[in-house]
């Protein structure tokens, strides 16, 4: 098992729809770094209630480990171990841009993608199937 380390920094960016992003570490084991270092963060590692996300620039403390892919966070909190604040935007189902407002569907018989904006009657929860239609995110 890889040893874990303590870092302090801010959220560099976080993709709410995909549930991951990167932290910009500015201190390692309490020592300021000359240049910030990127650390991967997944929403499952965030210490907070409800929908888990981070806001760009949000101050964080975290434990992390070295992996074959780079540095990965293991537990992310706000300063002093408090809950993370999170972003204001929540993802909506559907919408090819990750913001919502539409529905992406695949017609299996034609294997054709179509985007139906504002057609709530054809939008179903992601993964739901009706007839030959399977609603997915792209």
UniProtKB/TrEMBL annotation:
UniProt cross-references to Pfam families, sorted A to Z: CSD (PF00313)
Domain CSD: 6-78
InterPro entries reported in the protein's UniProt record: CSD (IPR011129), CSP_DNA-bd (IPR002059), Lin-28_RNA-binding (IPR051373), NA-bd_OB-fold (IPR012340)
GO MF annotations in UniProt: mRNA binding
One BP term from GO: pre-miRNA processing
Top-rank lineage group of the source organism: Eukaryota
Single GO cellular component term: nucleus
UniProt xrefs under Gene3D superfamilies: Nucleic acid-binding proteins
SMART domains to which the protein is assigned, alphabetical: CSP
Name of the featured protein: Lin-28 homolog Aa
Species this chain originates from: Oryzias melastigma
């Amino acid at each position: 098992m890889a040893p874990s380390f303590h870092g302090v920094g801010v959220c560099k960016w976080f993709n709410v729809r995909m549930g991951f992003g990167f932290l910009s570490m500015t201190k390692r084991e309490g020592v300021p770094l000359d240049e910030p270092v990127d650390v991967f963060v997944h929403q499952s590692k965030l210490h907070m209630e409800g929908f888990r996300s981070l806001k760009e620039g949000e101050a964080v403390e975290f434990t992390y480990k070295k992996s074959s892919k780079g540095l990965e966070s293991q537990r992310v909190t706000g300063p002093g171990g408090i809950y993370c604040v999170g972003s204001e935007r929540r993802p909506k189902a559907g919408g090819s841009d990750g913001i919502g407002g539409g529905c992406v569907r695949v017609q299996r018989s034609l294997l054709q993608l179509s985007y139906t904006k504002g057609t709530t009657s054809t939008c179903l929860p992601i993964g739901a199937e009706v007839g030959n239609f399977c609603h997915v995110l792209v």
